[in-house]
Amino acid sequence: MSKSVIAKYTINKETFEILIDSELAYEYITGKRSDPLSVLEADDIFKDVGKGERQSEDKVRKAFGTTDLATVVGTILKKGNVPITTEQRNKLIEEKRKQVIDTIARNAIDPRTSAPMPITRIENAMREARITIDPFKNANEQIEDILEKLSPIIPIKFALVKIEVVIPAELSNRSYSVLKKYGLKSEKWLSNGNLDATVEFPAGMQAEFYNAINNATQGRATTRIIA
Description:
By secondary structure, the protein is of the alpha+beta class. The protein folds into three domains: 4-79, Hypothetical 12.0 Kda Protein In Nam8-gar1 Intergenic Region, Chain: A; 86-157, Arc Repressor Mutant, subunit A (Orthogonal Bundle), CATH 1.10.10; 160-225, Alpha-Beta Plaits (2-Layer Sandwich), CATH 3.30.70. The protein contains eight helices and eleven strands. A hairpin with a 4-residue loop joins strand 5 and strand 6 (115-116). It is elongated and about 80 Å long. The chain starts with a strand and ends with a strand. The model has no long low-confidence stretch (mean pLDDT 94).
């Protein structure tokens, strides 16, 4: 049995409503469902669902830049107020929290030491700063505000690292995919046949990179941070 609820989105003082199945809408919000139209209980954009009053095409086009139903519904689901249960909300917050922490850990360093930022340190700082996660807002869109709130507690900044890697000639082929994965910027062959490459990637991924390149080269690669 469907659980019909009304999702609302307000922009430029105009309200846009859709009648949806709350369970299917939750699946769409969390990425388990890809078709926004599949969550609809009625294939219309309303000004007031309760009164059966539909929004005009002109106002829909002005607000969303299109009258394509899938595009409009997708925007309302992602940016609007979508009623969900407390359990669903808590799950969504936890998922977004993990995404935020993962993004910070992969990109951030301690500017005093240039060392990657441990996940536990980020988690503790977020608790101390009483960071609130918006369950409906994209995780990446929340990062800047969260970093601003964390900065008084821990020194933190997003940075890239550039590393020179020298790989023995006989191991270059099996290592090339790792270099490509971590942002291969340049490559040249040395007179002894070894590969001299430069990679650039988010600074928080250094430990991950060193583990990957050491596995690919049996620990025989030499590395040097150059920027």
